[in-house]
Amino acid sequence: MGDAVAAIDCGTNSIRLLVTDGERDLDRRMRIVRLGAGVDRTGRLDPAAIERTRVALAEYREVIEAFGVSRIRMVATSASRDAANAADFHGMVRVTLGQPAEIISGTEEAALSFAGAVSGLGGEGPYLVVDIGGGSTEFVRGGRSVDRSISMDMGCVRMTERHLPTDPPTPEQLAAVVRDVDEQVARALAHVGAGPATLVGVAGTATTLAGVALGLDRYDSARIHHSVLPAAAVEELAARLAAMDHDARAAIPVMHPGRVDVIIAGALILREIIRQTGFTEITVSEHDILDGIAASILR
Predict the structure, then answer these.
(1) Contact indicator for 268, 242 with CB cutoff of 8 Å
(2) Helix (H) or strand (E) holding 272
(3) Residue 79 C-alpha from the chain's centroid
(4) Which bin fits 287, alpha (ψ -120 to 50), beta or left (φ > 0)?
(5) What is the assigned CATH class of domain 120-288?
(6) Cα–Cα distance, 121 to 123 (Å, whole number)
(7) Which of 37, 164, 250, 265 is most buried, judged by most C-beta within 10 A?
(8) Burial (Cβ within 10 Å: 0-12, 13-18, ≥19) of residue 119
(9) Does residue 268 sit in helix, strand or coil?
(10) Does 5-103 carry CATH code 3.30.420.40?
(11) What is the DSSP string of 145-199?
């Protein structure tokens, strides 16, 4: 399948693969590997996390070879930029995948995420795309292309590890997340602007919240993609999830097991973004940086 390409996005919480020919997805999958577990505290990647990532990457290489794909681009983001022992991770990638992972700048990460997020939305914007990852959250404003962007160190894994040691969290712990997030959201919006736009949310926090709000009995990306989540629903979900214990959240049909412990922090991040921007709704996109990476190969 010579026209197909393979895109791999390796973040703090998950590693994802997309094989596409530009017209249709041939394979799209995700594994929660928590590569960035503990990095906020230790400054290093845990060897066990590198091994989990290696196992997923070996699976992806088999899929890529089965499709006969030769054009591959792997991008690694927040955790592998921050870690003192990032060379261990990159050595593993070269051996497992047969080529290196790219560490891209925050500017390029924003451009790729924006390109993926707004594809298929129609119109020329303006858009404000928020990509809540495990280690960081990207804010990207633009129309046909990116006008302003910034990356903030407030991903769902980072905030959980920093502020939520108990499950369910205490009111004091939740307040600590909000204080941290509020300060960072205010700085981000001062940079990219909070004027009129279509607010677009990508990545697992936004898509999971959309699935819960839709009352899905299983994760259905087709129904979640381009669904609209009212601000009031985000408020309700953030409060409801914060009051649940681990088992109750795990029992939610659309909840991925690897997202159970970080969804509270993710929901609080999204809630505070909506509060500070004043938007009444957010459009949720299943397309994000992974699709942007694939498009960059196909160009």
Answers:
(1) yes
(2) helix 263-277
(3) 13
(4) beta
(5) alpha beta
(6) 7
(7) 265
(8) middle
(9) helix
(10) yes
(11) SEEEEEEES--HHHHHHHH--SSSPPHHHHHHHHHHHHHHHHHHHHHH--SS-EE
Nearest one of 139, 109, 132, 143 to 277, comparing CA atoms:
139
Pairing between strand 25-32 and 227-230?
A: unpaired
* 223 dihedral zone (left: phi>0; alpha: psi -120 to 50; beta): alpha
Tokens linked to 112: 């790729």
**198 phi and psi angles, rounded to 5 deg:** -90, 120
Least Cα distance to 75 among 295, 297, 293 occurs for 293
- Cα 127–chain centre separation: 18
| 98 SS3 class | coil
299 burial (CB, 10 Å; 0-12 / 13-18 / 19+) is exposed
Q: Is the pTM of this model over 0.70?
A: yes
Q: What is the pLDDT of residue 109?
A: 82
Q: In this prediction, what percent of the chain has a pLDDT beyond 70?
A: 98
How far separated are the first and last CA of the chain, in Å rounded? 17
Domains 5-103 and 120-288 belong to one CATH topology: yes
> Where in the chain are the domains?
5-103, 120-288
Tokens representing residue 56 in the block: 């997923």
The residue behind tokens 């992974």 is 290
Q: Residue 43 in contact with residue 81, Cβ under 8 Å?
A: no
Q: What is the pLDDT of residues 202-221, one digit of tens each?
A: 988 999 999 999 999 999 99
Contact 72, 290 (CB under 8 A): no
Angle at 237 between CA 285 and CA 283, to 5 degrees: 20
Q: Whole-angstrom Cα distance, residue 21 to residue 2?
A: 9
Question: Is 205 within 8 Å of 132 (Cβ atoms)?
Answer: yes
